[in-house]
Amino acid sequence: MNSLSIFTHTGLELFLREITATDIPQIMTLERSAHTHPWRQSSFEDCLKGRQKCWLAESKNLLVGYVVVTHGGGDAELLNISVAPQFQRKGIGQCLLAHAVNCVKGKADMLFLEVRVSNRKAIELYSKEGFFEVGQRKNYYPTVNGHEDALLMAMQLDPI
Ligand SMILES: CC(C)(COP(=O)(O)OP(=O)(O)OC[C@H]1O[C@@H](n2cnc3c(N)ncnc32)[C@H](O)[C@@H]1OP(=O)(O)O)[C@@H](O)C(=O)NCCC(=O)NCCS
């Protein structure tokens, strides 16, 4: 299995490795703690069976985050990025995003993502890492009492 060790800009050592089916229960625990509208378990199971690249980050044998990215037809899409609430703002999201970009470099020209307009933390991260706004999808996400818009963002990758 592929794995690598990297340091966040705060000096935290992370071990990155591909997600396997046995990781899904703890991934779901983190997913539910990080999102108001978490993915279903079946979404992760489908990603493991598909062409998606699914990687997790561990610190001292503890799951601290994960990222899911896919590519096809010259484009790539960031599908999920999550960091455990107690480990946020330590540079883990930045490392996971950089790793996702590396996974699709040479396989796509553009990397796209969708994010809730209210998700300031994620929008800050994406903007800092070179994503720019390319559009909006009206009422795209459910909220507790209605819907909210999605921001569509993109990053230019090196030409294939
Ligand atoms: C979005 C998320 C992945 C960021 O992960 P993280 O590990 O906390 O992010 P990092 O520590 O790498 O932060 C990198 C940069 O993002 C921005 N950022 C991150 N958290 C922020 C916050 N709370 N407020 C403002 N900016 C923030 C900052 O620019 C930060 O750089 P800095 O700390 O040097 O100022 C994390 O908050 C998360 O898992 N949120 C819940 C799930 C989610 O919303 N996923 C994205 C769905 S589209």
Account of the 3D structure:
The protein is an alpha+beta fold and 160 residues long. The protein has one domain (3-156): Gcn5-related N-acetyltransferase (GNAT) (Aminopeptidase, 3-Layer(aba) Sandwich). Helices cover 26% and strands 42% of the residues. The chain is built from 4 helices and 8 strands; from the N terminus they run ββααβββαβαββ. It has helices spanning 24-34, 41-49, 92-104, 120-128, and strands at 3-7, 13-18, 53-59, 62-72, 75-83, 110-116, 132-143, 146-156. An 8-stranded mixed sheet has the order 1-2-3-4-5-6-8-7, sandwiched between helices. The longest helix has 13 residues, at 92-104. The model has no long low-confidence stretch (mean pLDDT 97). The structure holds coenzyme A. The site of coenzyme A has 19 residues, from strand 5, helix 3 and helix 4.
